[in-house]
Write a structure and sequence with these properties.
Helix content is 50%, strand content 20%. The protein has 163 residues and is α/β, with parallel strands linked by helices. It has one domain: P-loop containing nucleotide triphosphate hydrolases (Rossmann fold, 3-Layer(aba) Sandwich), CATH 3.40.50.300. It has a 5-stranded parallel β-sheet, with helices on both faces. Helix 2 packs across helix 3. The termini are far apart. The relative contact order is 0.22.
């Protein structure tokens, strides 16, 4: 049977890039919350953003089971920032008899800040469809993120500073 891979890491650590590369290796479908919410709502979600994200995640959990049951590997590209999210996902897939892996993507703080600046410049220039992450939002997201413990991680991918 096919399996599901959850990408875990702070915003702007390279999860989507990692998922795209892994997609080719595993012949997998990548399911991305950001891709869907940006396509449907753009940057105009306002106070509804968290509601739209929650609804999208619920939809993608169900869609991933459908894909896996037809033999397609699935990569979930949405961060899994908290232990509770990761536990829920493992329990969900376990209840469906589906193998689940957590791939933790991490970078140094220096590299993270460099990536945020690069991403924001591309978004501001209209060269990239992604959320602009200002300093306040970056701090908020950093405070929410709970790094996975060793017993949660199946594969760790560390990307060093690009010089």
């Amino acid at each position: 049977m096919a399996k599901v891979i959850m990408t875990c890491g702070r915003i702007c650590t390279g999860k989507s890039t990692y998922a795209a590369k892994l997609r080719k290796t595993l012949s997998a479908a990548v399911l991305s919350v950001d891709e869907i919410t940006l396509a449907l709502f753009g940057h105009d979600t306002g106070d509804m953003h968290d509601t739209y994200v929650e609804r999208t995640e619920k939809y993608l959990f169900e869609k991933s089971v459908e894909l896996i049951e037809t033999g397609i590997n699935v990569i979930l590209d949405w961060g899994f920032w908290t232990r509770e999210e990761r536990r829920y996902a493992r329990d969900f897939y376990s209840s469906h008899g589906i193998e689940c892996e957590l791939h933790y993507i991490t970078v140094s703080d220096e590299e993270w800040h460099r990536r945020l600046e690069k991403r924001n410049a591309a978004v501001a220039a209209g060269d990239r469809s992604a959320y602009y992450i200002d300093e306040g939002l970056a701090a908020k997201f950093a405070a929410i993120f709970e790094p996975p413990t060793d017993d949660e991680i199946d594969i760790i991918y560390r990307k060093e500073v690009n010089k």
